[in-house]
Amino acid sequence: MTDQGSTPSADSENLGVESLQAAETGFEPAARAIDLYKQYGEGETVVIALDHINVSFAKNKFTAIMGPSGSGKSTLMHCMAGLDSATSGSALIGDTDLSTLRDKEMTALRRDRLGFIFQSFNLVPTLTAAENITLPSDIAGSKVDQAWFDEITTRLGLSDWLTHRPAELSGGQQQRVACARALVSRPDIIFGDEPTGNLDSNSASEVLDILRTAVDKDDQTVVIVTHDARAASYADRVVFLADGQLVNELIDPSMDEILAFMAGVER
Q1: Rounded Cα–Cα distance for residues 265 and 267 (Å)
Q2: What separation, in Å, do the N-terminal and C-terminal C-alpha atoms of the chain show?
Q3: Using CA atoms, how far apart are residues 255 and 238, in angstroms rounded to an integer?
Q4: Considering the entire predicted model, what is its pTM?
Q5: Which domain holds residue 215?
């Protein structure tokens, strides 16, 4: 593993699973990728998005996934969240191998055990903020814990906006609704795909504080994909991808360390 803040060496793309996971011993994984491989197309048009990746995401920790455009970071997250299927290898949530699940079982897992925050918010425009927050539970026919709903919406500053529809909310407020939707069911893990990508700096800070608090106060597990070094600096750990492979990680990184490493990867 390269030193924190260093640029990758010529051999960094070939770092073994052991070196990349050396710092991972001693924790319980919330999710794991085992020899995860994903390709699109065939023959001369084949694109390898994930090239036999092995990585674990610690329970009750905040992890950021970074890398240049086309590095495979969003593909990794989508495979881990069951939004896309791998060509081979395994993606596990806890001890559940997603490749073994039938469609109904996958739907139930995504609904009951995963939270997902999208860059584009993905709110239903005809529903109020409150209805958007409880939508997954309503579809499942399960009851929302009202005390937890009240705590989350109060903490996120949404109490006065619960009857408003998305068009009546700012971008930051819409993303806070999306965060509340991900948090309200107390999922095993929350994934965020560029969750601050469409937000101004103040709104982005609010969302990142929400995710950091979810880990520190509520013992949640958060994994985000981001291109923003400032967003990644909120994480306990940053893993870097390039050309579909894991190339390095930083533990408790500063923004300067993240920027320095990314500059080397992008060269």
Answers
A1: 5
A2: 19
A3: 11
A4: 0.86
A5: 12-113+187-266
**What tokens were used for 91?**
């993606």
C-beta pairs of 214-218 under 8 Å, 24+ apart in sequence: 214/183, 214/190, 215/60, 215/61, 215/62, 218/183, 218/186
The answer to whether 121 and 129 have CB atoms below 8 angstroms apart is: no
The Cα 252–Cα 10 span in angstroms is 25
For residue 249, being part of any structural domain is answered with: yes
- Segment 17-33 mean pLDDT: 63
Instruction: State both tokens at 45.
Output: 């048009």
pLDDT in tens, 81-120: 999 999 999 999 999 999 999 999 998 999 889 999 988 8
Q: What is the pLDDT of residue 111?
A: 87
Q: Are 65 and 239 in contact (CB under 8 A)?
A: yes
Residue 225 lies in a domain: yes
* Selection from 87, 82, 94, 86 nearest residue 56 by Cα: 94
What is the percent of the chain with per-residue pLDDT over 70, rounded to a whole number? 90
What are φ and ψ of residue 30, in 5° steps?
-85, -30
pLDDT tens for each residue of 145-198: 999 999 999 989 999 999 999 999 999 999 999 999 999 989 999 999 999 988
Dihedral angle at the C-alpha atoms of 132, 104, 65, 28, nearest 10 degrees? 110
Cβ atoms 124, 91 nearer than 8 A: no
CATH number for the domain spanning 64: value is: 3.40.50.300
* Contact between residue 180 and residue 144 where contact means Cβ atoms under 8 Å apart: no
Amino acid letter, 14: N
